[in-house]
Amino acid sequence: MAGKGIAGDIRTAREHDSAHKHVSGTAVYVDDIRVPDDTLVVLIGQSPHAHARITGIDLSAVAAADGVVAVLTHADIPGRNDCSPVYGDDPILAEDVVSYAGQAVFAIVAETMRAARDALPLAKIDYDPLAAVLTIEDAMRAGSWLGPSVTMESGSPDSALAGAPLHLSGRIEIGGQEHFYLEGQAALAIPGEDGDMTLHCSTQHPSEIQHKAADCLGVPNHAVTVETRRMGGAFGGKESQGSLPALLAALAARRTGRPAKTVYDRDDDFMLTGKRHDFRIDYDVGFDSEGRIQAVLFEQALRCGMSWDLSEAIAARAMCHADNAYHIPHMRVVSHRCRTHTQSNTAFRGFGGPQGMVGIERVIDQVAHHLGLDPLVVRQRNFYPHKFSAGTVKGRTPYGQVVEDCILQDIVPRLAADADYEARRAEIEAFNRTGGMIRRGIALTPVKFGISFNTTFLNQAGALVHVYSDGSVHLNHGGTEMGQGLNTKVAQIVAHEFQIDFDVVKITATNTGKVPNTSATAASSGTDLNGMAAQAAARTIKSRMREFLAEQHQCMPDSVTFANGRVRAGGAQMSFAEAVKACYLGRISLSATGFYATPKIHWDKARSCGRPFYYYAYGAAVTEVATDLLTGENRILRTDILHDVGRSLNPAIDIGQIEGGFVQGAGWLTTEELVWDEAGRLRTHAPSTYKIPACADRPPVFNVALFDDGENTEDTIHKSKAVGEPPLMLAISVLMALSHALESVGDDYPMLDAPATPERLCLAARRLGGPGIALGDK
Amino acid sequence: MRDRITFVLNNQVEQVSGLAGDTTLLNWLRQTKRLTGSKEGCGEGDCGACTVVVARRRADGGMRWHPVNACIQFMGMLEGASVTTIEGLQSAGAGGGGLPDGQLHPCQQVMVGHHGSQCGFCTPGFVMSLFAAWCNGDGLAAPDIDTTLAGNLCRCTGYRPIVEAAAALEVRAIPPQFERQRREIEASLMAAIAHDETVCLSDGRRSFTAPTSLEGFAQSYAQTPGATIVSGATDVGLWVTKQNRHLPNMIWTGRVRGFDRVERSGAHWRIGPAVTHETAMTTLADGRPDLGEVMRRFGSTQVRASGTVCGNIANGSPIGDLPPMLIALAAEIELVGPASNRRLPLESFFIDYGRQDREADEFVAAILVPVTPTPLFRAYKISKRFDQDISAVLGAFSVTVSGRRITSARVAFGGMAATPKRAAAAEAALTGAALEISAFEAAAAALTADFTPISDMRASAGYRLQVAANLMLKYGLDVTGAPVPRLTGAGLSAHDLRATPTGTG
Questions:
Q1: So what's the ipTM on this one?
Q2: What is the fold, at CATH topology level, of the domain defined by A19-27+460-597?
Q3: For the structural domain made of A279-454+605-767, what CATH number should be given?
Q4: Reduced to 3 DSSP states, what percent helix, strand and coil does chain A have, rounded to the nearest 5?
Q5: pLDDT band of B503, cuts 50, 70, 90
Q6: Is B463 close to A684, i.e. CB distance below 8 A?
Q7: How close is the nearest chain A Cα to the Cα of B191, in Å?
Q8: In this predicted structure, what is the pLDDT of residue B433?
Q9: Which residue in the set B47, B108, B161 is minimally distant from A687, CB to CB?
Q10: At B493, is the pLDDT very low, low, confident or very high (cuts 50, 70, 90)?
Q11: For the stretch B467-500, what's the b/e string if a residue is b when 16 or more beta carbons lie within 10 angstroms of its beta carbon?
C-alpha cells in the first residue's frame, strides 16, 4: 500500500470484478451451473396464431413420447396463472385465448432438450382464429387501447400554437428493438423441503420472480429464494421477461420433484419476449423566424402488445422526454397505449425516453431545415436555462419539474469546438453540393435524461455487509449485475468506506434471502440506490467500530480514522484486520444492513405532473455519416461524445457504458429492423435476420470523453451520476446526420423514419429527386 | 472402418464412440465434458459466443488454427484435429505445464487490460477468435481486425475496447516458452493419432461417416440412399439445431483426399467439394477485388473457415452470394454419380426454389471457374449490415468490350428470384451497345422484365427492384470511368471518402 491509497478505490479505472473469469470461461451463468444428472429441461409450446380461441388441447402423444417426463398446461398451476409485473394480465400458460404468435400454451418437461424438441410437434391443439390487431395503425383505427389515453400539458398549447408566426407538422415512425442480450432467458429451479423452491435466474428483478413464483406455486414469499450471480446482458429485457421461464422451471420442479431448467433457444427468445416499443409520433409545432419554439403538440402512439407489462411507466417516460433538452413553454403530449396481438413490449434501455426524444429532435431538425439554419443553432436557442441562471429564469418541464441542473451550455460548445463541428459541417455541405452519389451528413444532438424510476416507491434499495473476524468483507445488495459494472462500483464504494483494498471485499450473488423486497436493477439507478445502501451499511459498522475503539483507546469516536488500510484511535494504530479482531473480541456486531430511499421525488400519475426525477444526466454527441444514394448503404464515419457522469466512480466503466450505449442506440436507428408478417408472426427471429451492430459498425473514429467539470448538484453517491441509459440516446445524432446527408438531395425535408435502413434511405433519396433509375410505379 | 473418432481436446487425446452422428461439438463440450466456458448465443453460427479453435494440417504441411462455431460443428468433423477451448488456454496439456498461478494467456490478458468485457458472455468467443489469429500470425493488423472479429457479436461494449485489445496483441513476437510448448505437444498428439481409415460415429439411429477416398465416399453414398452430404455444416448444422431435422445418415466430404484441392484444369480453376471459402478466396479473388470483398463480407471468419464453395451452391439457396458471382464469371458445375459425370453451366443447375438439376445419387464434385481474366467484373452486395449479413440483393456483372462496344454481357442477381438468376433482358440490352452510361440505364430499365422479386424480412419488392436497377447504373459508372466510392471495405476510413472525388449524379 505504501501510503499510496487503497487499491481499487472510487474514481479509479478498476477493471470489472469478473473480468478474469470472463476471459477464462469460468464466470458462471445460469446454464453453466453444475446441476445433478437428473435435472430436467423445460421447452415451451408456442401459439402459431396471433389471436385465436383454443378449442381443444390433446397432449397425450407428447406426454407419451420418449424422454418426456411431464407436460404442463394452465390447469397444472396450483396458484395464480400470471407472470405479469403489474397488472395481472400475462398468463403463464394460455387458457382459452392466445393473444400473440409465440405465446406459451404448454410446456414439455423432458430428460433432454432433444427429447423435448422431438415431442413438440406431437401436440394437437385446435385453434379457432380470431381477427388480429397487429400494428399501431390497426390499433388506432380499431380503437384498441390497453387503457385511456393520457395527456400532459403545460401553458396554453392551442392558443400559443395558433399565435406562433410559423408552423410545421409531420409524423415520424420509430421501430422497436430486440434486446439481443447474448445470454438468452434462463432459469434453474431446485426443489427443497417443505415445498420450498430455490431459483437461479438470469434476471434484473429477483424479488419480483420470488413473489410471482410464490403466487403461482401457492406458497408464501418466504418459501421461494431467488439468486442471481450475473446476467449475460439484459438491457431491460430481463426486468419482467425473466418471470415466465422461472415460473415454468419452478412448476416443473414442483411437479416432478426434480431440478428443472428453462433456457430459451435464441429463436424462442425472439418469439416469446417483448421488445422496445415501436412508436408513431405526430406533431404540430409553432415557432418564430429565429427558430424559437413556442408550442408543440405531440401525439405519441406506442405499440404495447397483448398486455400492459411495463408499458404504462414506459409511456410516461416517453412523455417526460418529449421535451428533451428544450424549454418549450406551451406543450401538450397525448399518449395512446395501443393494444395489439403481438409480443408484450417491455423495458429497454431508456424505457420510452429514447422514442420521446427522437420526436422532439425531429421537430427541431425540421424547423431548422425550414428556416435554413444550422440545427445546432436552433437547438441552442431552445435549451433549458443553465443551472446558474437566476431562479426566475429557470425552465420548467411540461410535467412541472424545475430544471435546476442544466449544463448543456457548458457541454455543447466544448464538444462542438473539440469536434470542429462548424468547419466540418461547412466542408460537408460543400462536398454535397458537388452532387456526387455519396452524400455526407453531420449532426450534434444533446441528451437530458431524468434519473429515478417514474414510479416513486421503486426508488429504494437495501444492502447487507458482514465484516468477518479476519477483516475480510462480504458485500451483498439488492442490485443485479448484467455487465454494467454495478458490483464493481458498489465494492469500490465499500472499499473506500472501510479504506481497504478492493480485493478484500467479496462480491456475492444477489439473493432474496439476504436483501428482501428489492426493486429491479433498472432506470440507470443501480449504483445510485445500491451504492448508497451499501455505504450506509458500511458506515453503520464503522460507527460501531469507532465507538468501541474510542473507548478502548480513550479518544473521541469522531477522531478514530480509517485510511489506507489502517485504523487510528487515540495513540494507537493498527491494520483494518486488527481493528476488526479487536471489535470482535469486544463483542461488537460486525454485520449491518443499509437502506436508501431517494429524497425529494413525487409523481402524480393521473395528472402527469410532479418531480419524478431526482436529477438529470446530460451529454451530447456529434456524428458524421456517409450514404450512397444509389443503394442507401450508409455508415458512421466519426463520433465525438462529451458526457456528464457527475464525478465518476469508475471512468473505465463509465466510458464503457457510454460507448456501448451509443453503439446499441445506433443499431436501433439504423440496421436493427423487426419485421412481422401479415399473420403477425415475427420474421426476424435470429441473428441471421436481425442485425445488431457488428465490430465494423462502430464509429471508426470514436472520441469519447467524460465531462471533466461534472458534479451532481444533488447529494448522490460521491456526487456521481447514473450512466446506464442516457448514452443510448446520443445515437440520435446518427439518425439526424443521415437526414442531413439526404437534405442535400432536394428541397424537401427528408422525413426519415427509423430504423434508417439502406432501403429507407435509398427510397427516400429517390422520393427527394435523387439519382437512380426511374422504374415508374412498379 | 472405425466406429469411433479420435481427436485432441485441450492437448489431451479424446476417443468418442456411440454418439448420435448429429451431435454438435458445443453440446458435447457443455453437457458431456461440462466445459461450459463456450457459450451458446444463437445456435446457428452467427454470434460467435461458442467459438473454439480447431487446428488442422494444411496440404502444404503447415498448421492452421481455424476459429470454428462449435454450435454447428458435428463431432465427426473433428477426426484427427485438435480442438482448443477457452478452458485450454492456460495449460499446455498432456506432459506440459500450465501458466504459473493461474496467469492469463496474452489473448485473455489484453481483454482484461482494455476493459474488453462487460457482461462477459460473448467474451470467451472473442478470446478464441483472437487466439486463432494470434496462432496463425495474421488478422491482427489494424485494417484486418474488424474482419477477424466480424463473426463475434458483442451487445455491451460497442467493440472499441475489444479492437484495441486485439491491436495490442503482438503477433509477430516469438511465442513465449509456454505457447511454444503447447504447440509442440499439439503437433505431436495430432501426429500420433493420424490414420487413414474411414470413421463412422453413430448411436445406431443417426450416423456420421467420414470417408477418406473418393471410392470410399462414392461407396458410402451408394450404400446409404438419401444420405445427406455435409461439407462445412454451416447450413446443414442449422437443419439440426434450428429445424430439429433428423438426418439418419450424413457423409462428410472434409476428410476425402483431394476434395480440399483447388487446381488448374485446362481453362478452369477446379474447386473441389471440400474447399472452404477461406481457401478458395485467394484464387477466386485474384484480379477480382469485388469478389474478394463480397467473400470477406459474407459469413464470417468462422463460417469461411468451415463453409465450402460447393456447399454454398449445392444447397440451392436463392440468396447465396457465390452463385450469382460465379454465374457472371461463366462458371460450370461438375456432377458425379454412379452412372454419370457431367458438366453444366452453373445457371442451369438452379431450376426453381429448392430444386436443382442433381439426381438423387449425384454429388457436386467440383465448381469450375474460367481462368480468363475479367477486368470488367464487378459485384455489389446489398444488406442491412455490411459484415456477416445475408444479402437482400447481390448483383454481379461482367462485360467484355471491343473498342468502345460491349461484345458480351453476363449479369446475375441473387435475392431477386427463387434462384440465383441471369438477367437475360438486361444482358440483351447491353450486348452490342456502345460502352456508355446510356447502355446501362437501358439495361437497368430492362430488369423489370427479368425479375419480379418478393417482399420479405430483408427487403421489400420495390426496393429490390430499385436497388437492382441502381446497381446496374452503378456498374455502368464503374466501367465508364466515373466510379462511385465504396462504403464497404475492411479498414475503410472517413478519410477515404473525403479525399476521393465522387462520381457525377
A1: 0.98
A2: Aldehyde Oxidoreductase; domain 4 (3.30.365)
A3: 3.30.365.10
A4: 35, 25, 40
A5: very low
A6: no
A7: 28
A8: 98
A9: B47
A10: low
A11: bbbbbbbbbbbbbbebbbbbbbbbebebebbbee
